[in-house]
Amino acid sequence: MVRPTPQSSERRPTVSAIAERPNAQVLVIGAGINGIATFRDLALQGIDVVLVERDDFVSGASSASSHMIHGGVRYLENGEFRLVRESVQERNRLIKTAPHYVKPLRTTIPIYSTFSGILSAPLRFLTHKAGKPTERGAALIKVGMVLYDSFSRDGGTVPRHRFLGRKRSLEELPRLNAGLKYTSTYYDASMHDPERLALDVLRDGVESSSNARAANRLSVVGSENGAIVLRDEETGETFPFTADVVVNASGPWTDLTNAGLGKPTSYMGGTKGSHIVLDHPELLEATGGREIFFEHEDGRIVLIYPLKGMVMVGTTDLEADPTQPAVCTEEEVDYFFDLVKHVFPDVAVDRSQIVYRFSGIRPLPGHGDTAPGFVSRDYRIVEGDLAGTPVLSLVGGKWTTFRALGEHLANEVLGKLGRERTVSTTTLPIGGGRDYPTTPAARRVWVSSRADALSSERVDELLERYGTRADAFIALADEADEQPLETVPSYSREEIAHIVRTEQVVHLDDLLLRRTSIAFTGRASRAAIDELAEITAGVLGWDESTREAEVERMAALLIERHGVDLDATSRRESDRVR
């Protein structure tokens, strides 16, 4: 059981900004990517909008993604052509508006038959029932790829697909299962830092208007006399808040939020998806730098994905209880190992290579007897009422379409307020994607023009990590010599302090799990936790007992929620240093 850190009696500035003016035109509940996108869109229209999140920003379903921005080629079989078209369009837009975090991703499907699935696919299309799992063959996949390409007519944002026979396929990827007959290679997009992308969207909203306020660790705990009761999770303080329109963007917890407001609903039926991250150079080399995406024999879509020098393997699609923490089980690990063996039969994997596990609940609608993999990934907006105040509940949604979904929700809200849209987000750059150098020559110019107090290599690293928002930190670096962390030298003490100071870090896990990639890449050793806690304590003014409690809490989260063996991590990091 992860124990909370002792509460502080001091109210944070972000909470004070809301408590001291406890009203707004719009209250958005839930700071996953869809709530954040809606907040940003409304803030850009000049709306007085408040965003609250009971935990940390992007700490729920949005932090457990497969790190992809994709059109959803498999949704074609469900007949979800509108969703696929929108998803492909949004993928292409994000490659342009967020090029610092969203980049084209070459993806290969190994195919083991020619005509398999061609008879069962129409039945799935008509009924959305899974039936007996049947692997898709080349003919069916080819039809899907042609349709997929047809939705991506955007001046060549990504290349079109190509098919190869067995010989050419094995020449390109020699470690693949030699029993394959073909491969199909196409492009979607990677999102190598989803949490940081979401924080960029959030900051864009906050900085666009003095009427845009956002706070994490501020939860909705009920309603009273027509007002919503908010609770500061750090102090325990509660206060009433009123708004003209309420948006419930709580993701898998939408029904729980509505029940807390005294308006029970039964919209949701989310499923659990888990992933593991492997430190496995041999498997990394076997992928050839591309994602391997395929259908396992049980009908689930799975992936093997090179990311940050590691290999991520996912995902499952299991029924889940939103009242319980989602964790990756040993059975799921066995499943992942089985599928790796299916694709790369001569590459051995074992549990000692797992550096991180994560799991989340997808915000899917209730689906009755429809198999989880066939539940629509599309979204809808359901209107309710709270003492005369409209409550718009978001049901569904996915990372790829967050901008379009935020626009849709914002338009619904603007209609309720009698306001017109004044700003389009369609081509608006996001955060550090603004003025991002997208060619090698432009990148060299950007880096060399800032390589003064810092080396060119360090400036380039910061550009890769934060996009052009790196400028804010580079300017500070003129004032002091950087000190690399002893435990994770790719980060500096000044960089970590800047993150804690400017990005609403409240607990140590906000820093290790979401503001940085330290835990994801298996670098969260006991020594690293201690070093980061010491820096954070200095910025936030923690006393020694609070610092120790945060270290204990962080260790417990890594062990219980993310399957991290801290002793093994410490040994691995010690070997790395030597």
From TrEMBL:
<keyword id="KW-0285">Flavoprotein</keyword>
<comment type="similarity">
    <text>Belongs to the FAD-dependent glycerol-3-phosphate dehydrogenase family.</text>
</comment>
<dbReference type="GO" id="GO:0004368">
    <property type="term" value="F:glycerol-3-phosphate dehydrogenase (quinone) activity"/>
</dbReference>
<dbReference type="InterPro" id="IPR036188">
    <property type="entry name" value="FAD/NAD-bd_sf"/>
</dbReference>
<dbReference type="GO" id="GO:0006071">
    <property type="term" value="P:glycerol metabolic process"/>
</dbReference>
<dbReference type="GO" id="GO:0046168">
    <property type="term" value="P:glycerol-3-phosphate catabolic process"/>
</dbReference>
<keyword id="KW-0560">Oxidoreductase</keyword>
<keyword id="KW-0274">FAD</keyword>
<dbReference type="InterPro" id="IPR000447">
    <property type="entry name" value="G3P_DH_FAD-dep"/>
</dbReference>
<feature type="domain" description="Alpha-glycerophosphate oxidase C-terminal">
    <location>
        <begin position="424"/>
        <end position="546"/>
    </location>
</feature>
<protein>
    <submittedName>
        <fullName>Glycerol-3-phosphate dehydrogenase/oxidase</fullName>
    </submittedName>
</protein>
<dbReference type="Pfam" id="PF16901">
    <property type="entry name" value="DAO_C"/>
</dbReference>
<dbReference type="InterPro" id="IPR038299">
    <property type="entry name" value="DAO_C_sf"/>
</dbReference>
<feature type="domain" description="FAD dependent oxidoreductase">
    <location>
        <begin position="26"/>
        <end position="399"/>
    </location>
</feature>
<dbReference type="InterPro" id="IPR006076">
    <property type="entry name" value="FAD-dep_OxRdtase"/>
</dbReference>
<dbReference type="Pfam" id="PF01266">
    <property type="entry name" value="DAO"/>
</dbReference>
<keyword id="KW-0319">Glycerol metabolism</keyword>
<dbReference type="InterPro" id="IPR031656">
    <property type="entry name" value="DAO_C"/>
</dbReference>
